[in-house]
Amino acid sequence: MINKLVDKIKKQNAPIVVGLDPMMKYIPQQVCKAAFSEFGETLEGAAEAIWQYNKEIIDNIYDIVPAVKPQIAMYEQFGIEGIKAFKKTIDYCHEKDMVVIGDVKRGDIGSTSEAYAVAHLGRVAVGNSRISAFDEDFATVNPYLGSDGINPFIKVCEEEKKGIFILVKTSNPSSGEFQDQLIDGRPLYEKVGEKVAEWGAQCMGNDYSYVGAVVGATYPEMGKVLRRVMPKAYILVPGYGAQGGTGKDLVPFFNEDGLGAIVNSSRGIIAAYAKEEYARFGAEHFGEAARQAALDMIADINGAIGH
Amino acid sequence: MINKLVDKIKKQNAPIVVGLDPMMKYIPQQVCKAAFSEFGETLEGAAEAIWQYNKEIIDNIYDIVPAVKPQIAMYEQFGIEGIKAFKKTIDYCHEKDMVVIGDVKRGDIGSTSEAYAVAHLGRVAVGNSRISAFDEDFATVNPYLGSDGINPFIKVCEEEKKGIFILVKTSNPSSGEFQDQLIDGRPLYEKVGEKVAEWGAQCMGNDYSYVGAVVGATYPEMGKVLRRVMPKAYILVPGYGAQGGTGKDLVPFFNEDGLGAIVNSSRGIIAAYAKEEYARFGAEHFGEAARQAALDMIADINGAIGH
Fold first, then answer.
1. What CA–CA distance (Å, rounded) separates B15 from B259?
2. Taking a contact as any Cβ pair under 8 Å apart, which residues of chain B between 40 and 99 contact chain A?
3. Number of CB pairs, chain A paired with chain B, less than 8 A apart
4. What integer pLDDT is reported at residue A241 of this predicted model?
5. Taking residues B45-55, what's their average pLDDT?
6. What residues have CB less than 8 Å from A293, skipping those under 6 apart?
7. Is B101 helix (H, G, I), strand (E, B) or coil?
């Protein structure tokens, strides 16, 4: 799947992923109104609004953007109905041949980590059948529990040719509280980065590993170091746009081949219609606003990395 | 909810929680057979088997055990049907007045962490309504992202009088890879423990905080230190039984009042019928075997802590 991701990034010349994090406040009123009039102000109504919103955005970007990253928390808060919308979104993206990165940040140990890996990337045994549950292409994973948490994911990645992105240095202001702590003079995130390189060597695609890393756009200096520490890891870079990262901050995350990083934007794309810059589209045409914002983001990043 | 948990532990004189981690291989054949004959070897069939298995165990322990800890990964692997069984289990435990600790190990930042907190402990806004999604009483949370990940949970805990257990030192063999790394001569888990104490001071119940910690039974020496570092945090202790922890290993996790810790056992209770010790019950009576194993665990721990 890492090979497919790299191929799509090359072909579309677009090292970006759109975060499908459909908060209710981003969803245009007409979409909510239609959903609520059919299902009421219920979890089902909210899930329908999310799904219709996502579908419109996907229809407007699938031919120019290689991947989406649905954030499961935004679906999970609507319970079972929300989870159904999450699954429907994944399936629809696959129909449109997009790569799906499940931003699930799961992490546990042993058989429990294996159950998460199976849930999101693999197939579960039921009697003599083996059945996919959510079937994303990649999942994000938390490293705090060490190898016991990661190895079960790697096993499933090998079997299914799927991938993971391990949290190394997150984009938020307080990420340093633990991640930046110095161990023998070097920060914890570097130590995690070294383990990512080690884990990744076990399952390589053509040029990059099935094991990638998450490093926030808001920390370009650290991105530079981590790029060197994990040369074969694709870096998933959140924090562009709304969180403050800009095109030029992203240069250190890429390798010289112009590859090695995929930059996420969520509300900057999916709620572009609400920004002054794209107000001309109006809330009615939020899908077209998202497309324009994606095109502008691609141009910004390709301009910065000279690609 | 921490007050309710402490009250129930005192009243039942049972500082234990039963992990409802229903792996298919633990579920007696007659339960699977009945479910598969109704729904086939499908996700729905698996979910039905899980639910029937859980229900029988709950019916046999609810009057002697204060709390359950369903591990969501074991449900999530069966997709939407699995998640329905998770929710059904929570609701049934509430009917039986048990405290429910959702072992979800979620952790993200800002609005995303808030969405997880809302999903599991709070109520989500849909139009003018506010609706509960999963409605556990406690959730486990991963600290790797720092305060930005924890504060949204604390906000929801304050609003809803619910609680969290933050991973500090996990029970698995490789937990030391990152958690034991020395920072200024002291391990990372101690630093996380200090933050737990700090976060917990913001939302206190009567004697203990709404913010607790997870520390594995397999590391009693570290438990001793952490008990001192976070005197007001309830400690959720996994790793008893199957993972190797015994009654006497648990003494350091308790305060002198005989409180301050709640010890988890999962397969040691729910799959007791498969152990030689409880073979006399037979697979038909797996619920009674679970009850006996819970009684024995309570006696073992109370004996060790002299309570």
1. 8
2. 41-43, 45-46, 71, 73-74, 76-80, 82-84, 87
3. 219
4. 79
5. 98
6. A265, A268, A269, A272, A275, A277, A278
7. strand
Give the residue numbers of A annotated as catalytic, written as ranges: 105
**For residue B242, what pLDDT is reported?**
67
Rounded Cα gap, residues A89 and A95, in angstroms:
10
- Least Cα distance to B266 among B59, B70, B27, B30 occurs for B70
Task: Write out the two tokens for A179.
Answer: 């991640």
Q: Is B183 exposed, middle or buried (0-12, 13-18, 19+ CB in 10 A)?
A: middle
Q: What is the ipTM of this complex?
A: 0.96
Find the range with the poorest average confidence among A161-175, B232-246, B256-270, B272-286. Answer: B232-246
User: What pLDDT score was predicted for residue A243?
Assistant: 66
Are the C-beta atoms of residues A209 and A200 closer than 8 Å to each other?
yes
Q: Could you tell me the sign of the dihedral formed by the alpha carbons of A189, A194, A195, A199, in that order?
A: positive
Segments of chain A with pLDDT less than 50: none
- Estimate to the nearest angstrom the gap between the alpha carbon of B210 and the chain centroid: 14
Per-residue pLDDT tens over the stretch B55-75: 999 999 999 999 999 999 999
pLDDT tier at B248 (50, 70, 90 boundaries)?
confident
- DSSP bridge partners of B98: none
Chain B residue whose CA is closest to A188:
B178
Q: What is the pTM of this model?
A: 0.97
| Residue indicated by tokens 């007696």 | B28
Which of B111, B294, B20 lies closest to A26 in space, CA to CA? B111
